[in-house]
Amino acid sequence: MLNPVTFTQGMHLRHRQRPEWGIGVVSRVEVLTRAGMRDQRLWMKFGAAGLKTLLASAADLEIVEGTGAAEHTFAARESASDGGWLGQIAKRRPEQAMSDLPPDATDPFLTAERRLKILLSLYRFDGTDRFTPKLTDWAVAQSGLDDPLTRFNRTELEAFYKQWSMDRDLALQRLVSDFRRQRISIDALLVDAPRAALQVLQKFDKVR
C-alpha cells in the first residue's frame, strides 16, 4: 500500500517495525513509479543501524517529533516528566519503562492474532548469550535512546532485559492458553515463529 506521506531530505523518521534502528535521517530521496503509482526510494542514516535504503510504500515509517521516542519508551516518559513530585517518581523508576512490553502486545482491543504476531516479533532480540549485540538492539528499541549506555550500564540493561523477557514469555503463554481454551488452532500462525518463542511454548507444555 502506498504511503500517502511525502518524505523530504532532512526528515527524522522511525521504522515502526525496527525501533532498534533508532532515529533515521533522510539524506536522499528519489521519486519513482511502481505499478503505475508514485513512490519514493529513501536513503537514510539510522543512529544504531547505519545507512539503509527503503521504499516508502513498503517501510512502516513515522515522522518523529520532540525526543523522537515512542510513547512507551523510557526516553519519552522521562521527557514528559515535569518538575513535580510525579515527575520525580517517574525518573526514579526507570526499571518500569525499561521492562514494560509495547502496549500493542497486550492491547485487548486488538485481535488475538495480531497480538500474537506482535509478541512473536519481540523474540528477534534473543541471542545465543546475554552479551550478543542484540541486547543493544533491544535497549535502543526499549529506551528510545540512540545510545542506551549513556544512561544505563550493561549490568542494568541485562537486568531490565531479564525482567522484560520474563514478562514477554508470560504474555505469550497466556495468549496461547486463550487460543487453546477456545479450541482455535494456531499452527499456521507459528509456522514462521522464532525458535526462541517455540522453545518457550515447549517448556510451557511440559509444566501444564
Short characterization:
The protein has 208 residues and is α+β, with helices and mostly antiparallel strands. It is 39% helix and 16% strand. A hairpin with a 3-residue loop joins strand 3 and strand 4.
Written description of the protein model:
This protein is α+β, with helices and mostly antiparallel strands. The chain folds into 2 domains: 12-63; 74-207, no CATH class. 39% of the residues lie in helices and 16% in strands. It contains 7 helices and 5 strands; from the N terminus they run E-E-E-E-E-H-H-H-H-H-H-H. Strands 4-3-2-1-5 form a 5-stranded antiparallel beta sheet, with no helix packed on it. Helix 4 (112-121) packs antiparallel against helix 6 and helix 6 packs across helix 7. Residues 79-90 have low confidence and may be disordered.
The SSE order reads: EEEEEHHHHHHH
Give the N-terminus to C-terminus distance in angstroms: 42 Å
Q: Number of folding domains?
A: 2
- Gross geometry: globular
Task: Write out key terms for the chains shown.
7 helices; 208 residues; 16% strand; five-stranded antiparallel beta sheet; 39% helix; 5 strands; alpha+beta
